[in-house]
Amino acid sequence: MAGEQRTAGAGLATLEDAARAATPSALEPREEIEREIRELLDRRAARAAAYGPTYAEVWEAASRCAQGGKLLRPRLLVDAFDALAAPQLRGSERRESALRIAAAIEILHFSFLLHDDVIDEDLLRRGTPNLIGELLRRQEAVDGDGQAPRGGAGGPLHWARSSGILVGDAMLSLVHQVFAREPLPEELRLRLLDLLDHTITESIVGECADVGLSDGIMPAELSAVLEMTRLKTATYTFELPLRAAAVLAGAVPRTETAIAAIARRFGVAFQLQDDLLSAFSSSDQHGKDPFSDFREGKETAIIAYARMTSAWPGIEPRFGAADFTDRDGAAIRAQLVACGAEEFIRSLVDEHLRAALELVSTTDGALPPALVDRLLRLVESLEKRRF
Amino acid sequence: MAGEQRTAGAGLATLEDAARAATPSALEPREEIEREIRELLDRRAARAAAYGPTYAEVWEAASRCAQGGKLLRPRLLVDAFDALAAPQLRGSERRESALRIAAAIEILHFSFLLHDDVIDEDLLRRGTPNLIGELLRRQEAVDGDGQAPRGGAGGPLHWARSSGILVGDAMLSLVHQVFAREPLPEELRLRLLDLLDHTITESIVGECADVGLSDGIMPAELSAVLEMTRLKTATYTFELPLRAAAVLAGAVPRTETAIAAIARRFGVAFQLQDDLLSAFSSSDQHGKDPFSDFREGKETAIIAYARMTSAWPGIEPRFGAADFTDRDGAAIRAQLVACGAEEFIRSLVDEHLRAALELVSTTDGALPPALVDRLLRLVESLEKRRF
Q1: Which stretches does DSSP call E strand in A121-255?
Q2: For the region Disordered, what residue ranges are annotated (chains A, B) (predicted)?
Q3: CA A308, CA A7: separation in Å to the nearest integer?
Q4: Which of A228, A318, B136, B352 is most buried, by CB atoms within 10 Å?
């Protein structure tokens, strides 16, 4: 199987060099992925336009938002594919498939974000209006006063949120269409469909748990919060792209299993780092409102730990309070440091990254050197993320 | 092609007889469809249970709601398949595929209803709690006072609505998995995927227009409302099952095209009848709150017509009013009759049914007699629907 073979690029200085050497295209993987995403969305834009200006405008706004990401997930897929695939697969039709599946994974991410934003009632993403915020802004500009001109319960905000739900559905369907149609050998196509199914199930269960924890439906124990973290983020952010790369490269199931275990470690570390960034760094760094997690009463692992300490009675009254102020935010932040919650979560991040490192080094034989190299770099870049 | 052949059942008294004669199973199509739906949902229930009691309970409640429908769409598919398929396809693996696709279409309907209910903020469907209402009821029973026990913006209603969004996503994904995996010849599988894609796009555009019209984003002209009606309901309720039956039966594209044109006529007639039922019959008959369409300011074709008459200034002030009463409802109903809106929409329904009838009788050769028979019965049953 291709996944077991040594790749020609293993001796090159960086994975990017290896990918470049192997790729007939003059484009960088990033540009290739951007082109695929644009093509997928543009083809639909032409169709949307046939249904009149309102839907065409919604699709155009959505399409623009969908293309603003850092492409973490699709780049991970393409990098891993280039590292895993046998030389004859790199630069082949199979690589075109990898690019399309990578683009679809970015669209899946966007569709999750859209429904998350509806659920969290967010209007911003990384400091700029998300699709809902953008549709709201456009409609208020048209209406002048921000009021619906006619009867009915709705108005611009209802319109914008409803469109967020519907465009999320359209994007989710698009992802499935790409996976379902990819001209791959039947066995690989079914493995990818299984993987997509597993990923979507876990992401939905994770988001459901996130809502359930924050709304007080489920008891916010540390173990439940950590499991939610794994389900909601780790599966689709790391496990999906890395396993999809393995399937597309024709890796044997043993390789795919080894990669999945490593990916889960990365995923939990990454999400815990996000929680730390949200809680302890400035909004310049994370692009959200300052203290938004504390304001919303979000049940992160940091909070779940603090809950078990004697600091909690001092934090609880202001956590998620209706009249929350930035002063409350600064006070909670200081208490979370003092009670050891910050340190505990940092040590958990270390633990997961160390475990990932160990898995990378001990699964010898199952992973080709180029992929080992790529994964070690990933550990390194995640370690540097700790600001 | 099978779709062009005369079927053995054409001389039998009813389509049901024909189907029974051709089916090796001892079950009625209705029971066969129910069994397929149950199997699809149960397989997922086992998986949901692995993620703990909260999600397991959400899935169990969703599964129960999904199984409460009249099965209009899947029965249409299976009936049409039995009428269209050559004898060797009836009772074959192909018929098993038709049953699974039929079950998936019912799940698609449920997923649309879930997101519609979130958008419309409905807690009831046909007079009983929908999934959101059911989750809310269960949570309030647990909480006692209906208040979230902890901080955060949410509470039982936020939890129930968010679950509605997420379960809708899970169901939409499930539908795609069924279509993507069905072991059919490649060409048929792709035709079905195209049809699913077309259907979902039109349904989303239609729902988006429905929201846009009600929220005052789009001008509520009669033509726009009629187009919304076709997109939102006709495509997935009639075009999808009838065309899917044609594809599964191996009908030539000409037959599929003829069926699609007839289906669109049925679909618009059916939705206009629904609007008439909602507006002019008692809640015993339609299972919704009395006058809910007037209360919500819903932009139906009835209202779009009334808007063009001198009666409108008398209707407008109470239509969708925040303090709407049943007395307002009765008054609006009387005004809609007096201004001719009711009569106009009834004549539109007649027009669409007559056009469907004409298409059925003039597309000779393209439709096998058993299907012609089935479609004529459908016209008849839709004509009887006019209470």
Answers
A1: 124-125, 128-129
A2: 1-28
A3: 49
A4: A228
Q: What is the pLDDT of residues B200-236, one digit of tens each?
A: 999 999 999 999 998 989 998 999 999 999 999 999 9
A173 touches chain B (CB under 8 A): yes
Interface touch A215/B156, C-beta < 8 Å: yes
Sorting pLDDT into bands at 50, 70 and 90, what band is A68? confident
Is residue B319 within 8 Å of residue B348, measured between CB atoms? no
Going by C-beta distance under 8 Å and a sequence separation of 6 or more, which residues neighbour residue B222? Answer: B301, B304, B305, B307, B308
Per-residue burial over B208-239, b = 16 or more CB atoms within 10 Å of its CB, e = otherwise: bbbbbbbbbbbebebebbbbbbbbbbbbbbbb
The reply to whether residue B151 touches residue A316, judged by beta carbons under 8 angstroms, is yes
Nearest to A204 among B154, B166, B231 (CB): B166
Q: Which residues 139-168 on chain B approach chain A with CB closer than 8 angstroms? A: 139, 148-156, 158-159, 162-163, 165-168
> What's the token pair of residue B1?
């092609």
Over residues B148-186, the pLDDT tens digits come to: 444 445 789 999 999 999 999 999 999 999 999 999 999
CA of B119 vs chain A CAs: smallest distance (Å): 6
Alpha carbon distance B252, A77 (integer Å): 40
Average pLDDT of the residues in A313-336? 95
CA–CA separation, B213 vs B209, rounded Å?
A: 6
SS3 assignment, position A146 = coil
Write phi, then psi, for B61 (nearest 5 degrees): -65, -40
B283-314 tens-digit pLDDT: 666 666 778 889 988 999 999 999 999 999 99
How far apart are alpha carbons A207 and A109 in whole angstroms? 13
Enclosing domain of residue A88: 2-384
Q: Is there a contact between B21 and B12 (Cβ–Cβ < 8 Å)?
A: yes
CA distance linking residue B250 with residue B7, whole number of Å: 13
CA B164 – CA B59 distance, rounded (Å): 11
Token pair of A200 as six digits:
């979507």
Domain count, chain A: 1
CATH number of the domain encompassing residue A254 = 1.10.600.10
B118 in reach of chain A (CB within 8 A): yes
Residue A144: pLDDT band with limits 50, 70, 90: low
pLDDT digits (tens, 9 = 90+) for B306-352: 999 999 999 999 999 989 999 999 999 999 999 999 999 999 999 99
**Sequence-ordered list of residues with C-beta below 8 angstroms from that of A93, at least 6 positions apart, any chain:** A183
Q: Which contiguous run of DSSP H or E holds residue A103? A: helix A93-120
Confidence of residue B364 (pLDDT cuts 50, 70, 90): low
User: What are the C-alpha distances in Å from A219 to residues A206, A210, A275, B251, B318?
Assistant: 15, 11, 19, 55, 46
Count the residues in chain B: 387
